[in-house]
Amino acid sequence: MSRLRIAEIFGPTIQGEGALIGEPTVFVRTGGCDYRCAWCDSLHAVDTEFRHTWAAMETQDVWTELQRLSKGNPLTVSLSGGNPAIQDFGPLIALGHTQGYRFACETQGSIAKPWFGDLDTLVLSPKPPSSQQTVDWAAFDACLEAAQGAGSVVMKIVIFDDADYAWARKAADRYPTLPLYLQPGNLEVDPTVAVDPQALADKLLWLVDKTMADNWFTPRLLPQLHVLLWGNKRGV
Ligand code: SF4
For 68-119, what is each residue's pLDDT tens digit? Predict the structure, then answer.
């Protein structure tokens, strides 16, 4: 089986964002990303400066660790990163499915993989202008194509400012049938700095007010629940 580059495996905890918010899950955070978002909150899984902290693990060893953390109780495994689409999770998904585990993956939609079609949930999270990245929509379309057969596919966009909001509206027009989740972004990514819950609530209220004023009723608006509960701490 293939070896996987893993930044951390942790849980069980709850999913803090997107379509599966609140769902018990174990996270597999992969090492490495083809993006460098200006506000990335997972640099320890992105920046090669942290490469020495990543483990090269056999698929079987990742599976053993998932079973240990979940005490053998099937739950949802969340593949996160970094960009998990750089690597081959097909064998892990196949192993987990034999024991009733479900698999969700979040990726920016820059790299398509055949195993997307085996997922229970694929969250495609294209990055808005504030990320200072450029979305390749042809690559995004290829991800959608690869995900045919997945249980569900949704789009999630993090919004930091008016430009991101306008961009999200265009992205929504491009994919009118894709369920859409919007959430305000968190600019404080330092794990040692306490987050201000009121500031997070104010950002969400700003987003609610904007969408309601525009009569834009198709997206679901969510907070980053994990930031509210745990701030920017890792491994929770
Ligand atoms: Fe960080 Fe995600 Fe951007 Fe990669 S795509 S740099 S993990 S925010």
Answer: 999 999 999 999 999 999 999 999 999 999 999 999 999 999 999 999 999 9
DSSP state letter for 226: H
Q: How many whole angstroms from 42 Cα to the centroid of ligand 1?
A: 7
**Domain extent listing, the chain:** 3-230
Specify the residue with its C-alpha closest to ligand 1, atom 5. Answer: 35
Q: What is the pLDDT of residues 208-234, one digit of tens each?
A: 999 999 999 999 999 888 777 877 666
Instruction: Kindly give the number of the ligand 1 atom that is closest to the alpha carbon of 36.
Output: 6
State residue 74's pLDDT score.
97
SS3 139: helix
Please name the residues in contact with 49: beta carbons below 8 A apart, sequence gap of 6 or more. none
- State how far the alpha carbon of 224 is from the alpha carbons of 21, 72, 166, 218, 229, in Å: 9, 28, 20, 19, 9
Distance 134 CA to ligand 1 centre (A): 12
Could you tell me if the CB of 40 is within 6 A of ligand 1? yes
Upstream peptide bond of 82 is cis (omega within 30 degrees of 0): yes
Q: Token pair for residue 48?
A: 């090669």
Let me know if domain 3-230 sits in CATH 3.40.50.1580: no
Nearest-angstrom CA–CA distance, 29 and 118: 19
